[in-house]
């Protein structure tokens, strides 16, 4: 995202939300890498949930993570 991320209103909204809720991270690092969440099933199930940040502070929906985790089937041994 580089500088374009600095000018996005959503980034500032996410920053304020985190700041108001008491975020106390170290803020170290290069600061240009977006994150994501993957839920991967056992064996050949593959990826059950993929969430990639579209902008800094974009959070994954907890109910969707729980739903994906419930779909994981134990691998037959």
UniProtKB/TrEMBL annotation:
GO terms for cellular component: cytoplasm. Belongs to the peroxiredoxin-like PRXL2 family. PRXL2A subfamily. This is Peroxiredoxin-like 2A. PANTHER family: PEROXIREDOXIN-LIKE 2A, PTHR28630. One of its GO terms (molecular function) is antioxidant activity. Keywords: Antioxidant, Cytoplasm, Redox-active center. It holds the Pfam family AhpC-TSA_2. The keyword Cytoplasm applies. Transmembrane segments: none annotated. Its main location: cytoplasm. It comes from Scytalopus superciliaris. It is found in: Cytoplasm. InterPro entries: PXL2A/B/C.
